[in-house]
Amino acid sequence: MHKIPFRAGGFAPQPLPLVGALTLIGLLLLWQAGASLGWISTRFLSDPLAILRALWILLVSGELWSHLSASLVRLAWGWLAGTMAGLAVGLLLGLFSLARAAGMAVVSALFPVPKIALVPLFIIWFGIGEGSKVITLAFGVFFPTVINVLAGVDGVPRNLIRMAQSFGLSRWAILLKIILPGALPSVLAGFRITSSTAIILLVAAEMIGAEHGIGAFVLSAGNLYDTDNLLAGIAVLSVLGLAVAWIIGWLERKLLAWR
After folding, report:
1. Average pLDDT, whole number, for the chain?
2. pTM: predicted TM-score of the whole model, two decimal places
3. Which end is more exposed in the chain, N or C (fewer Cβ atoms within 10 Å of the end residue's Cβ)?
């Protein structure tokens, strides 16, 4: 009997971490080869080995941790504050008609405003210290979180909610057992966007007013035309982005295993 092949894979993407790692390594090798052969001018674009040397010097001297720790604290507080507020407001807009009618007007009006342009205003309001930087990140994270939570709540099949109501489940039980799990994929997808947004705003805020932080370090290296340290700082930001993406991917695998 002829065996019928299985065709119902569902277009489920398979994790291939080795492919991603080999792609990055291949690009770095091509970059190094181009610099070694003189195809890329190291005067304007340092080669990977020079960047690694700069990173090693920064690591041994302790300067790297001094800047990175300051940035991580700001990133954590700003992202958490914006995310918590965005989750609460997004659920309110998704669950209550009056809140949606009033809140969506405000969200739609403020969301398109470039958050980087508001950094000087936040400095005037909250000072040059940590407050203005954390508020900048929180403000930038808040609006995408609200929109993703709202989209996630709207995407929950209403048939499931009607079925739960017909079985007499309370509003609280419906929220915990149906709405929140159903909205979770959209919420976690929003985390990927807001984490990248937070890193971008972090660098911008540190460039405008900070003595320590990766953004301040990159700006200082650029002013000195020190491309080795400048690209070393950018490499740290890239690794930070990869680390955050890995953490969110791990959360997705743990929290969305039911899919």
Report:
1. 85
2. 0.82
3. N
